[in-house]
């Protein structure tokens, strides 16, 4: 992923150089030669087109009149750098958008979300986990939502030491997975729910907070099936 970003950055720099240093485009120039024009025929010429020599259409001669000499207009068009500059600008825009796109940023690129390396110090009381009765509407639509809060209330110090990979530490100021379940965010986020069920299951298997955190960072929580998670106890 970093190699791809490096390559795109180099190409972006090259295109930027093209945009800054490419000569300005040259406007089309023309040379007009009129061999003869009869009185009354100075108006009405149509059919001008750029890019190549063109004969202009002119009004028909009155019956019996001698043919009117043609008006020959020759265009000399010098193709400048405008087309190249527009194309380079479009490609540069797409590259910048692609490099900055969130779907190209892996979890490794974004780093580990905030967590606490140890349980809260003695005397430091954690905010309470919401009870089942405090969840309503969309936050209690499925059994695995309310059951997750029931399990979280059993392991508050454990989830206090776990990061949350929905990156709510950046958008919501959360400090750990515990923060998600002291509010309604945990019921609304599949990542939070899966991490909670993973943490509880590993805790029941005798894993330490540090070992569970290593599994979360590795991504093992993604294997949790929320459809059956409500049966975990």
Description:
This protein is mostly helical. The protein has three domains: 1-25 and 78-105; 27-77, no CATH class; 113-118 and 125-229, no CATH class. Helices cover 42% and strands 6% of the residues. It has eleven helices and three strands. The protein has helices at residues 2-21, 82-100, 107-110, 143-152, 156-159, 168-171, 177-181, 185-188, 190-204, 209-218, 226-229, and strands spanning 29-34, 54-55, 71-76. It has a three-stranded antiparallel beta sheet, with no helix packed on it. Helix 4 packs across helix 9 and helix 9 (190-204) packs across helix 10 (209-218). It is globular and about 65 Å long. It starts with a helix and ends with a helix.
Short description:
This protein has 233 residues and is mostly helical. It has eleven helices and three strands, in the order αβββαααααααααα.
């Amino acid at each position: 992923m970093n190699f791809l970003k490096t390559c795109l950055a180099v190409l972006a720099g090259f295109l930027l150089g093209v945009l800054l240093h490419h000569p300005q485009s040259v406007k089309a120039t023309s040379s007009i030669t009129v061999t003869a024009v009869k009185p009354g025929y100075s108006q009405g010429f149509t059919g001008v087109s750029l890019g190549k020599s063109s004969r202009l259409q002119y009004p028909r001669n009155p019956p019996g009149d001698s043919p009117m000499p043609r008006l020959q207009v020759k265009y000399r068009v010098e193709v400048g750098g405008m087309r190249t500059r527009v194309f380079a600008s479009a490609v540069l825009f797409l590259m910048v958008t692609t490099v900055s796109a969130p779907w190209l940023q892996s979890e490794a690129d974004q780093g580990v979300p905030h967590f606490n390396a140890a349980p809260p110090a003695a005397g430091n009381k954690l905010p309470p986990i919401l009870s089942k009765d405090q969840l309503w509407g969309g936050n209690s639509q499925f059994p695995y939502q309310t059951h997750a809060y029931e399990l979280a209330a059993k392991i508050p110090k454990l989830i206090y030491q776990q990061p949350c990979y929905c990156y709510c530490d950046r958008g919501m100021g959360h400090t750990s997975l515990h923060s998600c379940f002291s509010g309604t965010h945990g019921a609304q986020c599949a990542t939070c729910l899966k991490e909670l069920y993973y943490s509880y299951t590993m805790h029941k298997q005798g894993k330490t907070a540090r070992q569970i955190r290593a599994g979360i960072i590795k991504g093992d929580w993604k294997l949790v099936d929320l459809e059956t998670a409500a049966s975990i106890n």
